Amino acid sequence: MSDATLSRFDSNRRYTYADYLNWTNDERWELVDGVPYAMSPAPSRKHQEVLGELSRQFANYLVGKPCRSYIAPFDVRLFAEDKSDEQIVNVVQPDLTVVCDDSKLDDRGCKGTPDLVVEILSPATGKQDRWLKYKLYERVGVKEYWIVDPLLQTVEVFILDDERYILSGVFGNKDMLRVTLFEDLEIDLRLVFG
């Protein structure tokens, strides 16, 4: 938990999505097992460029298909099926989320497990993305998880296999990255990191 989290929240309390909806300041937060984590205040220009290009390539491919892609801010409520706002204790805002089941979508975002999640590393959230959220996404059953490093210009792809992530590969700025979730989609990383 960051210092900002400790100063604002009771470290002995488990917060819920209902609490989260009432937080009205300019900061963005995520909840993991009821613990609030501050998100990066403002993404860097490079972060935005990488996210914009990834989003464009996914959105173009998904036109006319049942899956949809969303960029943050977009609330993803995990372990939330059949639960009220007061019972939900896991809310994340991945940089890019792909959902293939319309029944999980509502006006607030996704209520349930998305099919693919992309997190773009920043100095403030790298540890959370590489460990805390990695374990959360694995536990909830996200089929494909990407960790994008804009500085190193790499994408680590993790595929869920028998309830555990396996590293499918690490791809660089000259690669075409085949999306496991979709047989005929390749992401051109030259454009993403260009």
Sum this structure up briefly.
The protein is 25% helix and 31% strand. The chain is built from 5 helices and 14 strands.
Overview features:
194 residues, alpha+beta, tt1808, chain A, 6-stranded mixed beta sheet, 4-stranded mixed beta sheet, 5 helices, 25% helix, 31% strand, globular, disordered N terminus
Can you offer a commentary on this structure?
The protein has 194 residues and is α+β, with helices and mostly antiparallel strands. The chain has one domain: tt1808, chain A, CATH 3.90.1570. It is built from five helices and 14 strands. It has helices spanning 3-8, 17-21, 45-62, 126-140, 189-193, and strands at 29-32, 35-38, 68-71, 75-77, 91-92, 96-99, 105-106, 109-111, 116-120, 144-149, 154-161, 164-172, 176-178, 186-188. The strands form four sheets. Strands 3-6-9-10-11-12 form a six-stranded mixed sheet, sandwiched between helices.
